[in-house]
Amino acid sequence: xxxxxxxxxxxxxxxxxxxxxxxxxxxxxxxxxxxxxxxxxxxxxxxxxxxxxxxxxxxxxxxxxxxxxxxxxxxxxxxxxxxxxxxxxxxxxxxxxxxxxxxxxxxxxxxxxxxxxxxxxxxxxxxxxxxxxxxxxxxxxxxxxxxxxxxxxxxxxxxxxxxxxxxxxxxxxxxxxxxxxxxxxxxxxxxxxxxxxxxxxxxxxxxxxxxxxxxxxxxxxxxxxxxxxxxxxxxxxxxxxxxxxxxxxxxxxxxxxxxxxxxxxxxxxxxxxxxxxxxxxxxxxxxxxxxxxxxxxxxxxxxxxxxxxxxxxxxxxxxxxxxxxxxxxxxxxxxxxxxxxxxxxxxxxxxxxxxxxxxxxxxxxxxxxxxxxxxxxxxxxxxxxxxxxxxxxxxxxxxxxxxx
Length: 404
Known about the structure:
Blueprint: E1 2-7, H1 16-31, E2 40-42, E3 49-50, E4 57-63, H2 67-73, E5 103-104, E6 107-114, E7 119-125, H3 132-150, E8 185-192, H4 194-211, H5 220-239, E9 247-254, E10 272-279, H6 287-301, H7 307-319, H8 321-333, E11 335-340, E12 358-361, E13 368-373, E14 380-387, H9 388-394, H10 398-401
Parallel strand pairs: 4-6, 9-11, 11-13
Antiparallel strand pairs: 1-7, 1-12, 2-3, 2-5, 6-7, 8-14, 9-10, 13-14
């Protein structure tokens, strides 16, 4: 999970070195609570974190350009330079994934100083042990500790990570999972203001009323998932000589507030499950099918009582190697995966220099879409990652652009 937050010059510190020293000190305090992040993972099929307190990698870098220029001219594929050892995704050819030793660092940090005094704080966390919510809660905790060290001490117990006790099961993961399809993928940001999203929601309600099965009060995420999926599939069909290829929607759902016995938002781990809606033909691309089926799946997940039940479901799936292989193949080859992070505490990451002017995911994978809050709070920033030819088409799709 690669997240980077950008901050303009605050004028609080006399030098970049003073800022870095304070960040290192507060990071050490924070890691005493998030101690698994300072341990080590076995590289191949880890079953646990070795909590040996070896620490995290902390890199400091300088960029010759002003922050505003960098943000104005950079593309998502340029963001890898802001992360230590290009740790934006697993790639065996990247220097961050060599085989010099059999252990892997769960977390790496890079602080990037721009010529204007602005800074970008980048954190890359292994998805093997935690999800996006866990990483953003960590960054908020780290920022709060930084503020507390420079001001009056405060009680931070309410933001401490919540560890979930879980009975260890003998689950053996299959060793021959399908490789991710190779190809050239690029990511682009599409900004949808709330006013345009409201127009889209009204359009969906109107369309579905005509079918006799109205979708009432679609959420922003539901509306954008339908629109983005419809437009992405149309782009892929044009690239494929107009031939429709069966696909599907895979939407990641945060379980913390969905269980019958809800969990604290600071719960640590991969506490999410995937909702799948196949779109086998063009008639499946209607809002009735996509939004309606997602709502049914969500209601099914809401019946899960607690984490013991949810994790038991995951363990059962993992024990069925054939089913897990097929699920992984389907999601990596045929499905578009949507992850909604718009309600996460993204723009509250304040190290004492004010709130960030931009927070983003540095990701370029096949058919992955992230939805985050817009920097000004007005709307949703959708980070769409597609094959290069598909992106050329979707960037000029009049239906999509009508709501940007």
